[in-house]
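Submission sheet (multi-component)
Chains listed below:
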Amino acid sequence: MEWNQRAEYLAETYADAILRLSYTYLKNTHDAQDICQTVFVKLLAEPRTFETPEHERSYVLRMAANACKDILKSPWRKRTCGLEECAQIPAPEAADGSLLEAVEQLPPHYRAVIYLYYYEGYQAAEIGHILGVPTATVHTRLARGRAKLKDLLGGDDYERSV
Amino acid sequence: MNALFEYRNSLDALRFTPEQKAALAAGAAEAAKRKARRPLWRTVLIAACLTAALAAGAGASGVLKSAVEVFAPIFGGSAAQTEVIDKIGHPIGAGDTDNGVTITADAIIGDAYNAAIVYTIRRDDGTALLPEGTDAKSLLMGGFGGASLNVRGGSHGSSWFVANEADGSAVQLVQTVSADCPINGCTATAEFENLCVWDEAQEAPTPVVEGRWKFRFDVDYEDSSVTLGGGETFIQDGMTFTVDAVTVSPVAVKVDYTVDHEVQWSDAPSGREAPGDRRQMERYFENVEILLAKTDGTVLDLSASGGSLKPENGVTICDKGQVFEEILPLEELASICVGGIVYPISGS
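Outcome: structure written.
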């Protein structure tokens, strides 16, 4: 596949998923385009063969998660983008008392497992592979994340739904 | 509404438009083509450095690299960028050895208030510096991690690691420093302790290279910055901002301004930021827009730069700026806009 075609395929297939994962980690949409660019450029410049589409998807999400972690670890996060780019992706509005608002109050590693489990639908072992942590750690983060969400939101309704 | 349903709906709405996806694809394809060409050029450059080292018959840490050799692979190697580096960059060559590993400050470049320093971290016996499979970009400094400047003022900055693709025994560390007082001519003390990687299971840094390194070097280079403006005002958030000076160089930008109100901080516990303080930071500092326009029409949004705020006698004295990610020759800069006030850059 020619580079431009391959880039279009990657953007069409994964840009939205990377945007959501980046937002989950970084709580802004400004860095998402940089994360997409980082992931896509690596995949284009160093092509890989994947066994299945699911394998490719989890690999791409892992790259995106690593790129987000790099930004989080940076002692001074630099955010430089074109004026139009910065304004074009509005962040979702997290209403007071909503689950999204509560999730955003959790530490990044809890937010990531909750997103991958409840939105992307991955199982704990798959999340462990994507994030590079043991499955037991994923279970722990899910349990602690749920407990924190329950504290933040209160009520049994939430406990049943998540 | 079911909370999980609402959560999924909120995230469903977060998506790129088809036009944004097309732009992302085009940008990635173009960048990948450039990246595919880059390793050859970089390898040639590093090979040239190694050849020079061998010809000199000295150990790696004893070879003084030129500023162009050090900065061009990191901050840009176009003809115009190389010319700037050659003019204002300065080799250093100072370093320290501990536990079989030497850290050398290779070179420095900067202006009156900002500097970028590149260090090489190398295992003296030529073996791989890092355990197999460790990505240099994932490294963290365990304790001290760079140079502090002997100046009477505050400073901020950043640092990141760069893998040496041709030499596994070394990695490079880039440090940028921005201060609220002049730094050129001062002495820097560089201190490092342990190179670490993040242990996901422990959720803590784990050392992969242990040691302590400390050495001094002079902050010395040609300052090619230009100072613009002085006295212009703009009104924002019900306050008057007076731009005291805008300093632009090929390496960095710094904006000094005074707000006609004195910032009031709450008495929050150490390490905590009260919501009120957050709003103060936004009003006095983060909401001040800095846009750098290049002659090719590109606009860099530098509004998220670091800096400082100092309440004093009813006003707040602020400075805000950052070191660029690449060398920007003044000839390629058209103007800088601060809070809506446009300052043409005469180098263009």
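Remark: Chain A touches chain B through 60 residues (CB under 8 Å).
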